[in-house]
Amino acid sequence: VMRGRPGGRRIFLAVACLWLPGMSLSAAERPNILLIVADDLGYSDLGCYGGEIATPNLDRLARQGLRFTQFYNNAICTGTRASLVTGLYPRQVGLTRLQRCVTSAEVLRAAGYRTLMAGKWHLAGDPRQRGFQKYFGLLTGCCNQFNPGARRPGEPEPGKKFVGDNQPFAVADRVVKPYTPSRGFYTTDAFTDSALRFLGESDAKDQPFFLYVAYTVPHYPLHAPPEDIARYRGKFLSGWDELRKKRLERMKRLGLVDGNLELPPRNRHAPAWDDVDDKNAWDLKMAVYAAMVDRMDRNIGRLLGRLRSTGQEENTLVLFFSDNGPSDEDRTSTPEIPPGPVESYRTVDLPWANLSNTPFRHFKRWNHEGGISTPLIARWPRVIKTGGRITAGVGHVIDVMATCVDIAAATYPKTVGEQKIPPLEGRSLLPILSGKAGGDQPRTLYWNQRALWRAVRRGRWKLVSPDHTYQYNPWRAGRKGRILRKPPADLDQLWELYDVQADRTEMNNLASKHPERVRELADLYAAWDRRVTASR
Q1: What is the pLDDT of residues 81-134, one digit of tens each?
Q2: Are 362 and 325 in contact (CB under 8 A)?
Q3: Which residues does the annotation mark as catalytic?
Q4: Which residue, 171, 210, 467, 530, is the most exposed by fewest CB within 10 angstroms?
């Protein structure tokens, strides 16, 4: 058992002294905010985004609210979560370290909100040191969904990524490692239980809440209750090739993509479904994955049900999105055990991930659209008056903090103590949510993971690292993910150029036709890179 850091309150106290003398909204008028984040969910996995998985609660949320077709994350778990809670780019805050910044919980708590969190943190420290008054969840990245800790009596050894892989959980006022819960534990249910308990323990008519629920599904390992898996057995036997076509057809009917959009070829590392030998084994992988998404949706239904039963639905902003694109990683450590039960540790693997990101190319970690595009569903009945709308307005996870500050009538500080902090990089999504002008205003967005996983989008133009340079292919490289190609010396030549307004699936590289555009965007990226590096 490890205790929290004694100095963890200092940042909150510095922000708390920035109370809001000019705040015009009454407590009853300020909205509650519910952020729900899935882990490694594909762009088209949800029913309301064209998928075949049953997600009736999220589908209803979409019918009552707004769906984004061009909302971006940071391609990896930690990067997205850093931007989500700070409104800054990850490199500005020291990636996971959250340095020289404030969090949304710190700002909203200072503005009089109850700040609550359940689920995956995956950043430095403990959420309770960064403004959250109550928290239960996983402090790191992934864990056994049934048992993150040691073997329980009467059960097999829980499947782990490697021997001794016990992940720390925050429980009550302690950090516990290994955390071995009682039998019947499942992360998705437990996080929802805690979120509902926190709301019940701190109900106050005169104090709005900020609740962040971060699920660990459908991130590997593939674990789901048997009865959930049974609902999907056999539903994927038509294979990824046929299902990709059907998803695209549904997306066109829903109005999520252009009716003339053509499906990109299957990923070159995925075999044709007709060539796969053990189709039942592959069907089981996707059945477990679907069961994980299905159970998450039912738990989201529990959260939404509470808002209805307590009369808080009308003035609660609900945002749902994924932290990155689907994972093509092979992290299997129990190849002899089928996916599903506590003793297994299996991944869904590249061919099914290629289905999940229909119609885009590439996956988690990549800065192509398949890695950084996420479904975003927003519902706020008080503001979003016309349900079922679809917006092509461009948004980014850095916008979540700015939106929270805006709608809560909070104040984002310029300093923490005597230390200056960067101004917010994001912009409020309120104009898009309310249907006013602003969603179509051009903007420039940037991505960076490690040396060469880079991208910049300005308006319709996007510059991105080529798909054949520094990327590794875990499907072929195995669990260690060896780098297959080394970068050439001239990094400035490592660019592809796409018109994502006309070619959202990034099939037509225009770099050779528009070298001046490449140079312009590359210069923008270089200037941004210098700025965010200097701000650290």
Answers
A1: 999 999 999 999 999 999 999 999 999 999 999 999 999 999 999 999 999 999
A2: yes
A3: 77, 122
A4: 530
